[in-house]
Every structure is written in structure tokens, then in C-alpha cells.
Amino acid sequence: MNTEMSKQEMEGEIQRLAPFHHKVDLPYGLKTYDPGSSQRHREQTRLDSLTRHAFPKLLEACGGTLEGKRVIDVACNAGGFSVEAARLGAEYVLGFDVADRYLDQANFIKRALDLEQVEYRKMALADCDEAKIGMFDIAFCFGILYHLENPVYEMKKLASVTRDIMLIDANVYQAPFSRKSLWKMTVPRVIESDDKTTTALWRTEKRCQFKPNVRAVVEMLDVLGFPKVEILKPRERGLEFRYYRGKRVTFLARR
Ligand SMILES: C[S@@+](CC[C@H](N)C(=O)[O-])C[C@H]1O[C@@H](n2cnc3c(N)ncnc32)[C@H](O)[C@@H]1O
């Protein structure tokens, strides 16, 4: 347990930084989830349910442990998945995000849990570059693909620093009656900087984003050099409904 932060200090930081998108257990029986300031049910369930859904397959693909692995956590937000990777033995985890507010949350959790092997940086996906950040065995790419303005370009950047596995969790376009690869463009609403209900604080101006259908993700992964793709069936109970309805899909892709 971290001895540098007192219980009062942690409680103060939880209140100051809430709401968190990831519920993480902290020392002194505290959690980042605070029902008083929580804005969405997902804040309570997101980290736990996606971990139960996707990590058993990830571990299977890695021989049962992440020991010795270098993990990159794209769009890490509060860093819950980086913490999970560290818990499973990862040697080094780099989480990055473009929003200061989420990085403040992630760094508070890192400090509270005294996780030396986890580092957070302010960086955009398009800035992935081996010379700056090194190479990684595993990339987590959760909740970001369908928000990208230049998705194939940005995912190529991620592929260039990923040696072995990409785990992608994304909303997908359910195109009726089509077997083709499709990307649906939208121009989502601009977000006010004091809006605490959202995980989209980066959307400060009008921009395009593209939601792929499942086939487009699989074909893109093939182009990126990750041809072995498994679509993880939502077998776990307690996942968000969008997984069972096929609106949200998790892909485990290997070189
Ligand atoms: C829907 S949240 C997903 C957070 C987390 N990965 C998860 O699945 O719970 C999207 C995150 O992407 C971050 N983000 C948006 N554009 C980004 C970019 N170009 N590069 C890195 N992070 C980005 C946002 O700040 C936000 O934290």
C-alpha cells in the first residue's frame, strides 16, 4: 500500500477529480467511483465488465500472464486498463490521452497505488513514433477507433509501435443488408470544457469521425499487418447491452 498519501488526501483527490470513467479500487477501502458525483451507470461497470469480457482471451494469447510485456494503452482516460495490465504483471505500461483532466485522474490513481511501472503522457494517437516511445508487445485500443478523424492513418501509427497484439473495443456501424466494408461519417456535437458528463472533452471544435462496420475493422487490421483476428463473443453476464446487440465489438488481433 502507498504510504505517501493519507486517507484524507485520497478522499480529497477523489472528490476534486470526480467523476471518473473507470472504477478503480484504492487503498483504505476507497474507490474512484463516487455515487454522489457519478453521471452515468457505465462509470461503475466499464472497467470491470470489459476486463472480464476481454482479458481472459488476452491472457490466453499471452500464455497466461502479461509478465515481461510492454503495453500501450491508447486514449487511456482515467487509466483503469493500464492499472489492470500492471496488476497482471506487465513490465511497463504507457497510457496516453489528449485531455489533461483524464491524465490528472490517471496520475492520481498511479500515485495512490504506487505503480512505478505505469507512465502517462499527454499525446495523440497520430503521434505514436518508435523513436519517441519505443515498441510495445500489446496495444489496448478501447473506446477510440470510432472517434478518429483519420482512422486508418492513426491506426497505422499504432501498428508501427505494436509488435504482437492489438485489442480493440469499439462501437461499430450496423449497416443493413451490406457485406461490404463501410465507414459511417458523423459530425458530433462540440463539448463545453466544464461538461462532466462526457468522456469527449477533446471535442472542442467541429470535426468528423468515422464508425466502421465489423468487416471494415477486420480488413483494416489485415492491412495493418494483423491478419489473425478473433471477434470476442459477449459471453460474460453483466456487460453493457450494446455488446449483446452487436453495436459494440471487441477484436483480438495478432500479427
Ligand atoms: C470514450 S473514451 C475511452 C476511454 C478508455 N479507453 C475506455 O475505453 O474506457 C475516449 C478517450 O479518448 C481520448 N482521445 C480522444 N482523441 C484522442 C487521440 N487522438 N489520441 C489519444 N486519445 C484521444 C479522450 O480524451 C478520451 O479519454
Give the arrangement of secondary structure elements.
Blueprint: H1 7-17, H2 42-61, E1 70-74, H3 80-87, E2 92-97, H4 100-113, E3 118-122, H5 130-133, E4 136-142, H6 151-159, E5 162-171, E6 183-186, E7 209-212, H7 214-223, E8 228-232, H8 241-244, E9 248-254
Parallel strand pairs: 1-2, 1-4, 2-3, 4-5
Antiparallel strand pairs: 5-9, 6-7, 8-9
Helix pairs in contact: 1-4
Bound molecules: S-adenosylmethionine (SAM).
Q: Would you write up a description of this structure?
A:
This protein is of the alpha/beta class. The chain has helices at 7-17, 42-61, 80-87, 100-113, 130-133, 151-159, 214-223, 241-244, and strands at 70-74, 92-97, 118-122, 136-142, 162-171, 183-186, 209-212, 228-232, 248-254. The protein is 31% helix and 21% strand. A seven-stranded mixed beta sheet has the order 3-2-1-4-5-9-8, sandwiched between helices. The protein has a two-stranded antiparallel sheet with strand order 6-7. The longest helix has 20 residues, at 42-61. The protein binds S-adenosylmethionine (SAM). S-adenosylmethionine binds at residues 21, 46, 75-77, 97-99, 102, 124-125, 142-144, 147, 199, 201-202.
Mean pLDDT: 95
**Within the CATH hierarchy, at the fold level, what is the topology?**
Rossmann fold
Number of helices, counting only DSSP H or I runs of 4 residues or more: 8
> Which small molecules are bound?
S-adenosylmethionine
| Rg, Å, rounded | 18 Å
The number of strands is 9
Strand content: 15-25%
Estimated helix fraction: 25-40%
Estimated structural class: alpha/beta
The name of the CATH superfamily reads Vaccinia Virus protein VP39
- Backbone shape: globular
Low-confidence spans: none
What CATH architecture would you give?
3-Layer(aba) Sandwich
Number of domains: 1
The main pleated sheet reads as:
7 strands, mixed
Q: Just give the CATH class.
A: Alpha Beta
How widely separated are the two ends? 38 Å
**Sequence of strands across the biggest β-sheet:** 3-2-1-4-5-9-8
Order of helices and strands: HHEHEHEHEHEEEHEHE
